[in-house]
Specification:
Layout lengths: L4 E9 L6 H8 L3 E8 L6 H7 L3 E4 L6 H11 L4 E4 L4 E3 L4 H7 L8 E11 L5 E12 L15 H7 L6 E14 H7 L1 H15 L4 H13 L3 H22 L36 H14 L3 H14 L4 H13 L3 H14 L15 H13 L3 H14 L4 H13 L4 H18 L5 H8 L3 H10 L14 H13 L3 H14 L4 H27 L9 H20 L1
Helix pairs in contact: 7-8, 8-9, 9-10, 10-11, 10-12, 11-12, 12-13, 13-14, 14-15, 15-16, 15-17, 16-18, 18-22, 19-22, 20-21, 20-22, 20-23, 21-22, 22-23
């Protein structure tokens, strides 16, 4: 940024020495002021915050997230406020976008930003996207509410005049706090359940708290308990919204103002406009359906997904929830129909909490699974191919497609088409094949693996040496690999693969050589991307060892 923006970054922290620096580094280039409310850190959190020029305020923790948040808002001096947690990162955004968002001509009081939460195992995380109001004007009337799962949108909507409210914007925040490692280490679920139970004791009929208890029970894997909390609330919400949702979408979260997007920025959009189920209704039905399915109550899972669809017909995740229950229940025809409905709906609108690929590549993958169960192999391959066309790194689709191709010749054309698309993407971007895909390819029979691996690497020079035997080409490739000359090695292995098609042993050796070469180049590419200044990654020796092991396997096959 050429200059700081008129924004105060407000945070609450406690014992965040592992995460805080990354968060502050992501936001510091944009904000003019950093305010950190520390609720009792015993590690290096405070010195880290102060090293970024933050104003640090020590406050007693009173089991109230809103109270701690509002303490920081009271100290902010800039006209706009951005709220982050230590386990979040503000992703880069252009200066032009920021200028439009904060322009004096803008009449909005706040903005919904995209919260991209990574979940599951850190090595292969899933992603959930939600819209949250984290950027808003510095106004004493705008404050957080809620002991837990606190939000400021309600207070913004309460003071908004006609045509002024909360708009959608392209800012993205990446959230790491729901990764399994983080959840286990911090025992977030236990803490959250304790806070919700305390709040429910004071307000037992509060629908937001009841939803929060059901959602936390779901996150804890207590599916029957989740059903007990969510099912009565869903029935109440269904009755309240029966008429209201005939004209409104998602209980007040209507598709509204997109700043720097495709929609006109004249309509107000709010997650909390006072209507029933504001901000959580669609997710309530989705979680309830999944809870029933995971509890083994499959008919009820389908029923509640369909009841949700009637109120939120543009929410593809609900169609997929019904499909998943049908598939678990051994009803592939019904599942296929539901997945096709999700595909017809397409990408989820921004006002829903949705999983990436819902209505697109994820639904196509599900349709492929359903097609396999009715032995429609070519149709299944077509669905997997469409999923890969939309998301070339969606490995569940690659895995099913390649497994089918290894024993089902009619689907081989779909594999070649998918790989041709992937290869064209690589050539267009100058990238290298992904390691996971290489692993999947080398699991195929040698002759098939070789054909596909060759498709990924056009020869870079006059690499063919017809004077050399395939064994000499393999030996030359192994020598080049041992010297770290992976590009040249891959050319030799490619030549060997072309020359040894009639010898299964040599073809397999060539395939492993190509895979090893690709692996080393892909690893180097990834390390370089992570270390643009040329720093050596601590994990690089291990990565080199993995590549060396592949080469040793190649040599063993060659010599055998």
């Amino acid at each position: 940024m050429s200059m700081k923006l008129p924004i105060s970054l407000c945070m609450i922290v406690r014992d965040e020495e592992d995460m805080l620096s990354g968060c502050l580094a992501s936001a510091e280039p944009y904000v003019s002021e950093i305010i950190v409310v520390d609720t009792g850190s015993r590690d290096e959190t405070i010195p880290i915050a102060e090293s970024y020029g933050a104003v640090v305020v020590r406050a007693e923790w009173e089991d109230d997230f809103s109270g701690a948040r509002n303490r920081g808002l009271e100290l902010a001096e800039q006209p706009w406020i951005l709220v982050l947690d230590a386990d979040e990162r503000l992703l880069p955004c252009s200066e032009q976008v920021w200028e439009r968002l904060l322009s004096p001509q803008q009449t909005t009081l706040g903005y919904y930003v995209t919260l991209s939460s990574l979940t599951g195992d850190v090595s292969q995380p899933a992603e959930i996207r939600d819209m949250v109001c984290r950027l808003f004007r510095n106004d004493p009337q705008i404050r957080f509410a809620g002991t837990i799962h606190e939000e400021a949108a309600t207070s913004i909507t309460a003071i908004a005049a006609d045509g002024i409210g909360i708009a959608y914007c392209p800012i993205v925040i990446r959230h790491y706090g729901y990764l399994d490692e983080m959840v286990t280490r911090r025992d977030k679920i236990t803490r959250n359940l304790r806070l919700i139970e305390r709040a429910l004791h004071l307000a037992p009929e509060d629908p937001v708290l009841r939803y929060a208890m059901g959602a936390e029970s779901f996150a804890a894997g207590r599916m029957e308990q989740a059903v007990e909390w969510l099912a009565p609330l869903a029935a109440e919400l269904e009755a309240e919204l029966a008429t209201e949702l005939a004209t409104e979408c998602n209980g007040g979260l209507a598709a509204g103002c997109l700043v720097d997007g495709s929609a006109d920025c004249s309509a107000e959009s709010s997650a909390d406009d006072g209507s029933a189920g504001s901000g959580y209704g669609s997710d309530l039905f989705l979680k309830l359906s999944h809870a029933y399915r995971q509890a083994g109550r499959l008919a009820e899972a389908v029923e509640w997904a369909k009841r949700g669809v009637r109120m939120y017909p543009d929410f593809p995740d609900l169609y997929e929830a019904a499909a998943a229950a049908h598939l678990t229940n051994g009803q592939p025809v019904e599942a296929l129909f539901a997945y096709e409905e999700a595909i017809d709906v397409g990408t989820s609108p921004p006002y829903y909490t949705s999983a990436p690929g819902a209505g697109t590549y994820r639904a196509m993958y599900g349709a492929g699974l359903a097609s396999e169960q009715v032995e429609q192999w070519v149709q299944a391959a077509a669905y997997y191919g469409r999923a890969i066309q939309l998301h070339s790194a969606y490995y569940p689709a690659w895995e099913r497609l390649l497994q089918m191709a290894s024993c089902n010749e009619p689907v081989w054309a779909a594999v070649e088409e998918a790989l041709a698309h992937y290869s064209a993407l690589l050539q267009g971007s100058g990238g290298v094949p992904d390691l996971k895909l290489l692993e999947l390819l080398t699991d195929l029979p040698a002759e098939k693996a070789t054909v596909l691996l060759l498709q990924l690497l056009p020869l870079t020079s006059a690499a063919e040496d017809t004077a050399c035997s395939p064994r000499d080409m393999l030996a030359g490739g192994a020598a080049l690999a041992a010297a770290g000359r992976w590009a040249a090695a891959s050319d030799r292995f490619a030549s060997a693969a072309r020359a040894s098609a009639s010898d299964p042993l040599l073809a397999r050796a060539a395939a492993f050589g190509l895979a090893a070469s690709f692996a080393a180049r892909s690893r180097a590419h990834a390390v370089a991307a992570r270390n643009p200044a040329g720093e050596r990654s601590a994990s690089l020796p291990l990565l080199e060892l993995e590549a060396e092991l592949l080469v040793r396997l190649l040599i063993a096959i060659y010599q055998g």
